[in-house]
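Just scan this pair:

***
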Amino acid sequence: MSRIAVIGAGAWGTALSIVLGRKRNHDVRLWAFEQEVTASVHDGRTNEMYLPGTVIPEAVNVSNRLDEVLNGAEIVVSVMPSSHCRRVFMQMLPFVSPKMLFVSATKGLEEGSLLRMSEVVTQVLEKNNHSVRVAALSGPSFAKEVARGDPTAITVASRDAELAHTVQEEFSDPRFRVYTNDDVIGVELGGSLKNVIAIAAGVCDGLGLGHNSVAALITRGLAEMTRLVVACGGRLDTMAGLAGLGDLVLTCTGGLSRNRSVGVELGRGRKLSDIIAGMHGMVAEGVFTTNAAVGLARSRGVEMPITEQMYAILQQGKAPADAIHELMTRSAKSEALAH
């Protein structure tokens, strides 16, 4: 029997707990911040706040107490928003044991430090004298589709091959295929940066632009994502895989994408504050990641024009139509050498 703690009961955390709870040899504990989520799962076996209408297996036990969820856990899956990761792991410290394996499933970067989530986890635990074995989970995976059992393929990345294999074995089933990868930088940055490009794709839709525009945006978005990944030490081939191109296409085109939806509303002229207020607690990671991505790109001397324009829209109030016009009227370049 494998004991697995899932920290974060948003849509994605709940979906992962459902995947893990489908296997007979799993004891899954789900930590929820909100009391109403705990009550909903406990009483009705559904998370009506974040993933309504989906039944959560009996193997999943929910609690809002970290000590209960982490007690005896062998694998800890981190699925909280990036802005909460450091704080929650600080709260987890008294209940962490040396043998725990950690899996980060959050697709975002920490503002200020510009760190990837596995780096945040490692930093918090190592500063408190804990040895750390951590992997990153990413890929094209809408929570609603994963929860209902649609065939899905994702990637687990770790430089620790044994850890990656363990996570692959524990998470995989006929409806959830897990590949391994040793490029943690590429997998985590791919999963984070694609959210910024998805906002841009939504802006195109909100402005009433067609498929030509979105196809160009995805292609050039992948190019600038890849430049930054390689500059940070990741690999080119990772960006052609599930955590790069796969997740980018899904998030830029799928109707379930929260980041794309934010972009659509921005393109229609709504203010960011009003859009976020209407999301009822849901998080669009791209809004936060845009700031960190711009900072990371500037620190590495990497030009990311789409990301820069999204930053201008989100943080400086630039008109979406002006941002798209500026992208289209940049100086002419060769595609092979284009920045």
